[in-house]
Amino acid sequence: MKVRKMATVTLLGMSACTLAACGNNNSQASSGKTSLNLMETDVVSSLDTSVTASIPQWDTLVQTMAGLYRSDKNDQPVPAVATSYHKSSDGKTYTFNLRHNAKWSNGDTVTAQDFVTAWRKGVSPKAMSGYNYIFSNIKNADQISQGKKAVSSLGVKAVGKYKLVVQLENPEPTFIDKMVMPAFYPQNTRLVKKYDAKYGTAAKYTAFDGAFKVTKWTNTSEKWTAVKNPYYYAKSAVKLQKLNYQVVKDSNTAHQLFQQGSSDDAVVSGTTAQGLQNNKNLYHLYRSGNNFVNLNMAKGAVLANKQLRQALYLAVNRTQLSKKVLADGSKPSYTFSAPNAAKDPASGKDFAAAAQPKETYSVAKAKKLWQAGLKQLGKSKVELTLVASDTTTDKNVSEFLQSQLESKLPGLKVTVKNLPSKSAYNLVANGKYDLYLSLWLNDYADPYSELQTLEKTNSHNYGKYTSAAYNNELRQVRKNAATRSVYFSHLLKAQEQMNQDYPVLPLYTMVEDHLVNSNLKGVLWHKVGMVDYTRAYFK
C-alpha cells in the first residue's frame, strides 16, 4: 500500500524536558478504562473500499469490519466470517462456509451475497481505489477491470446465504493470506442498493460487521468515534466500549497529546521520535514495508542507463542514513522486498534476506560505473531531479541523498523538490522526475504484494520498469505455481532479476514509533497490514 507519511515539525527553542519526554501520561488513571484514544494522520475520506484505499481508512475498517479471515498475533489468517473452506483438487475453486451468527450493525444477516456485492464493486473499472488489480486471478477479474466484461461475470457467487464460491484462473497458494485485507471485506447489499454512491460517505450510510461500529463521522470529520457493536459475532472477546479518533498531522502535537493523557497510542516521527528513543513508553513496530527511491527509466530518460542506476545503488551509505540521519530505529534496506512478509521455503530465511544481493555499498565501483554510464550517453555531467514530500523526514532524507550522490559521483548535480504529497505525486504520475522518494507497505503476508507493483502494466510502476525476465517470473507466479515452494522460487528469481536491473534504490525499512499507554494490553501489532485493537483492554 502506498503510504502517506506524517508531517513533522522541528520547533526551535523546544525545551529539553519536552524533547526528552519528562514525565509520562497518567497510566494509573487509565487503569481499567474502556475508551481508547487513537490518532490518524489524515481524514477518512470514504469507508467504501472501492472508492479509496488509505491507511486511515484501512485502520478504521480493521476495527469495524470482519472479512472471511482476520490476522492472528503471528500475522497468519484465522477464520472470521468464514468458518472453513474447501479447495478443489486443481486448486482453482474455493468454497467458503460462512458462520450463521454474523450480523451487520443494523441487525441484518451477513450473507455470501454481501461479499459478491463488495468484490464486484472493487474490481469494476469504475472503482477509484486503485486496487482493482488485487482481484487479479479471480476468474475474469482482469477483463472486468479493463472494461471488457461485465462485473457480473466475476468468478464469485453466493450459493444460498452461507456459502461463497470463488473461482480462480490459476492455483494461488497464498490466496487465503489475502483474505485478511480490507479490500476483500463485505458490504451490506441492501444498503448499497439503497444509498448507492452515498454508501460509505457517512456513518448513517454505512453498516459494520466487526467489533465496533463507526458513529459521528462524515468524510470530512477530523474527529470520530467507534462504539462496541452489539451484533458482532465475537462480542464477548471485545473488552473496550469505544474508540475515539482524531486527526493529528504533527508529530510534536502527537507527543504532547500523549503526555497529557489524551492519546493512548501516539505515532511520532522525525526529530520528535529521535528525542524519544529512550522513553519507556516507546514501541518500535517494524512494518513489512520499505522506503525507497523510484527511478525514472522511461525511454529517453537519463536513468534508462543501467550502469548509472547501479552506481546510484552502490553510492548510498544506508547504515549512516538509518543510524545518523533518521535515528528512530529504522534499519538499512537493500532489496525492494521488505522484511517480515514471509519466509522463503527453500532457505527458511526471511524472504528479503534470502533475496539480498552480495554487494550493497562500494564507492569505488560506483564511480567506475558512473563514468562508464556517462561515456555511453556521451555526457560529462548530468542533472537529476529528486522529488519528495515536504515532511521533515523526507526533507532530511532528500538532503542526505543529495549530499551522498553529488559527493561520490563526479559530474552529478541533484536538484531536490520537496512538495506537498499530492503535488509530488502529480509530477511523478506525469513522468516529470528522475528520482522519487517513496514507500510501500505490504498489504498481506506475501512478497508478491510489493513485487507486482513493478510489473510492466501495474499502475504503480511509475518508473516504467520493463524487464521481460522479471515480468515472466511474475507471470509464472500466477500461472504455474501450484505449491508454495514453486510459488516462492519464482518470486525469488523475480527479486534476483531486479537486483541486476536496479529499478529502485531501497533505503530503509519502515518503522513506526508508537508512544503507548503502559496499561494498554491485547493489541495485535501486525507487521503486515494494520494494527488490530479489537481485543485490546486496559490493565
TrEMBL record:
InterPro entries: Peptide/Ni-bd, SBP_5, SBP_5_CS, SBP_5_dom. Belongs to the bacterial solute-binding protein 5 family. Keywords: Peptide transport, Protein transport, Signal, Transport. It comes from Lactobacillus porci. The lineage of its organism: Bacteria, Bacillati, Bacillota, Bacilli, Lactobacillales. It is a lipid-anchor. Residues 76-457 form the Solute-binding protein family domain. It is found in: Cell membrane. GO terms for molecular function: peptide transmembrane transporter activity. It holds the Pfam family SBP_bac_5. GO terms for cellular component: ATP-binding cassette (ABC) transporter complex; periplasmic space. This is Peptide ABC transporter substrate-binding protein.
